[in-house]
Amino acid sequence: MPGRTTTGRNLLNAKFSSGLLALAAIILAGAPIRGDLLRAEAGKGPEPSPSASPAAETAPAFDLPNFSGGRVRLSDYRGQVVLINFWTTWCPPCRKEIPDFVELYRNYQDRGLVILGISLDRNPDQVLGSFIDKFKINYPILLDDGKVARNYGGITAIPTSFIVDREGIIRNHYVGLRPKRVFEEAIKELL
Prior knowledge:
Blueprint: H1 2-30, H2 35-41, E1 57-58, E2 63-65, E3 71-73, E4 81-87, H3 92-108, E5 113-119, H4 124-135, E6 141-143, H5 147-151, E7 160-164, E8 169-175, H6 180-190
Parallel strand pairs: 4-5, 5-6
Antiparallel strand pairs: 1-8, 2-3, 4-7, 7-8
């Protein structure tokens, strides 16, 4: 029945195409990269600014499993500047900023910088080990328990990062990819 085969193929192609469009929409919505951020990274537009909070807010406490073993509490790092980064292995903007975090941690950990990557991956045991090795991640990778992301305002896009000062106050909040210099300037002000 040639008519059914053609109609079946058209239907299959339409479903495949709409599936690809839906996937692209999810990825773009989940990891926004606004045009002004891309222009700023290329030096062609205004510098992206962190989300402004009406008042300083204490960073919500957490106690999460470390992928490499043990547990990590935010309170363990009181007295240090902490960059908390919510991310996943499949997120292209997250992948792009990880080498910057590796370099920032290497350059500033002796001055009191801590970076905590909080993985939102659904299958961390299957994907994180090889990912950490491939990207040579030198800072702790923690596994989100579902509560921490909610406590930090409900992470609706990735990457999302927070910079917490030595007293445990959130000083900067970034949604989406940012150039390394944005993080570096904010960190240096607090070290």
